[in-house]
Design goal:
about 60 residues, 4 helices, about 70% helix, about 0% strand, hydrolase, Endonuclease, hydrolase activity
Length: about 60
Amino acid sequence: ARTYLYMVGRYELAISDREKNLMNRWNEKYPPNRWECERNEMIREIQGNDNQYITSKCDALLI
C-alpha cells in the first residue's frame, strides 16, 4: 500500500478515492517494520529520494 501511495504522489498514478482511502487505512493499521525502514533508508542513500509514507513513521525504529 505504501508503494502505491508513494507512486500516486510522485508519479501522479491514478487510483480511485476508495483505493486511496483503503491504502491509507492499511498504512495506519500496519506501520513499517525495522526492515522496511532500513530498506527505505538504503534507497534514499542510493537514489536520493525516499518514501515519505515510510520515513515519517521510522524515526523511533531507527534510533
